[in-house]
């Protein structure tokens, strides 16, 4: 059975005149290229540890999402929690890639190793 997420986790501040929706759109667009990002990080840093590859992926994604600007505009109110969430998304993508035909034994692909 899937873990239930408390309703408080879905509470969004109101009254930001479209700021939340703009940020949400930007966030979802950023998530759309995580599989390509993970694949690219694996290609560039394949000989590095999983932790180093995950840190590189998080750093790249934070820059792509303009996280510093979002913090300054108070769209991200807890940067560490947000960074942890990005890490969970990356872990999920890695798990999906490793469970897919992309990483089946005998294929040209190699398993992605990004540590938690």
Output the keywords:
elongated, 0% strand, single chain
Secondary structure topology:
Blueprint: H1 19-32, H2 34-45, H3 50-64, H4 67-72, H5 79-99
- Basic shape: elongated
Taking the sheet with the most strands, its summary is: none
Query: Helicity, in percent?
Result: 55-70%
Write down the secondary-structure element order.
HHHHH
Total count of helical runs of at least 4 residues: 5
Could you characterize what this model shows?
- This protein has 116 residues and is an all-alpha fold.
- The chain has one domain (20-103).
- The chain is 59% helix and 0% strand.
- It is built from five helices and no strands.
Structure summarized in a few sentences:
This protein is mostly helical and about 120 residues long.
């Amino acid at each position: 059975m899937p873990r239930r997420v408390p309703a408080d986790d879905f509470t969004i501040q109101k009254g930001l005149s479209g700021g939340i929706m703009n940020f949400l759109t930007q966030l979802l667009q950023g998530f759309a290229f995580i599989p390509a990002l993970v694949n690219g990080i694996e290609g560039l840093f394949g000989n590095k540890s999983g932790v180093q590859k995950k840190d590189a992926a998080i750093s790249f994604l934070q820059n792509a999402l303009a996280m510093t600007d979002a913090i300054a505009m108070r769209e991200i109110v807890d940067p560490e929690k947000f960074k942890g969430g990005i890490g969970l998304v990356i872990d999920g993508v890695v798990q999906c890639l490793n469970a897919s035909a992309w990483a089946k034994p005998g294929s040209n692909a190699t398993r992605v190793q990004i540590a938690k």
